[in-house]
Amino acid sequence: IAAGRVTFDRDESRHLVRVLRLRPGDTVVATDGAGRDYTVRVETIGELATGSVLGVAARDVESPLAITLAQSVPKGDKMELIVRAATELGAARVVPLLTERTIVTLEPGRWRERARRWQRVAKEAAKQCGRAVVPPVETPRPLADFLAADEPADLRLCLWEGAAGPEGRGGTPLARSLPIALPSGSRVHLLVGPEGGLSRQEVESARARGWVVVGAGPRILRTETAGPALIAILQSKLGDMT
Question: In terms of Cα–Cα distance, which of 195, 178, 174 is closest to 186?
């Protein structure tokens, strides 16, 4: 976006032509991914479509909670499902993690490729659900590094199947872990393990750094279900899904 004109990248240009079937003179609403919508009149269609800005508006559809989903990387394409659902549910950020029981092993360069693919999934999900902000999806890093960074948060929840059950073994029931309310803009971090779950050592390491270890009821959730389910609960109890 420069001097009142917009240049669309190659992917969006193809979308304008092949999916939306727009022509010069048509208008479209575009977002910069940071909370602003632009009404654009399309002027040229080609490898890089261009248009002129007719109006700018800030769209306030973001959750009052800044939820970071710290998700252990699962196998297959499950991470894409998780990123898509987390984006639709209003997560502000996704941090893929490498944990003791992470099955997938790749070279650093391949992880960067995966992160770029997951970022594209977040972008498409944001467009589909009407968000003006695309949550960043980071390159996977070890859980120990993420915990050591000790990023500021108003609430840290570590989901662990060892805390499940009516007796709440090793953890606190989720309902008792949530405050009645949180101020707008509060940062919530949610940690979810891979298919085999987090190890007890990893859980205790998180607990030692102030994470509240919680269960999600008597049933053990699959890793691709757990994160989105907890985000939905957080949004319902403390966010904007009322």
Answer: 178
